[in-house]
Amino acid sequence: MLNKIKNKFTKILNPIAIIFIKLKLSPNHITIIGFIFSIISAYMFYLNNIIIACVFLILTGLFDIIDGTVARISGKVTKWGGVLDSSLDRYSDMIILSGIILGGLCEISWGLFSIIGSLMVSYTRLRGEIEGVKLSSIGLMERAERLLLLIIFTLLNFIWLGIILLAILTNITAIHRLMHIRKSLK
């Protein structure tokens, strides 16, 4: 869903991407830095240092957007970069949610359900696209939306509620994608 409006932010993203290119940072470097930020965010959630956790969560999301922009502008879009980005995004999601769970900021069952839903959103997209079904923008909770939901509810100091919503909405998205795939393959 947010991917549709990402193009409107090109005027903002391109100058930032050019700065990273001038700093000689490759898209893969930016992906790895974003991943490191997610680990720091998770650790801060674990320590219940919510403000710092949220700052690094925002940086994680920013770097997740910028790496692709840098790749496109610099002409360094590669299959390996896509695999690395996607894989570290999954690790990042699970690490952040684990930090929230281990920090006691939500009920364990809702936290685990949000991990399952987050993984299934990505997995159903992967499996559907292997079968030739485009799933970008199908469902509510792609990665950008998941990060935004966590950021908003962290800022509101209602992380537990954000996790409940994340658990419900990610699993609804995965089911929606499964139904879309089934319909497309008939």
Explain this structure to me?
This protein is an all-alpha fold. The protein has a single domain (2-185), classed as Four Helix Bundle (Hemerythrin (Met), subunit A), CATH 1.20.120.1760. The chain contains 8 helices and no strands. The protein has helices at 2-6, 10-22, 27-46, 50-74, 79-102, 108-130, 143-155, 159-185. The longest helix is centred in the last third of the chain and has 27 residues, at 159-185. The mean pLDDT is 93.
Give a short overview:
By secondary structure, this protein is mainly α. The chain is built from eight helices and no strands.
Please supply descriptive tags for the structure shown above.
single chain, 186 residues, mainly alpha, Four Helix Bundle (Hemerythrin (Met), subunit A), 8 helices
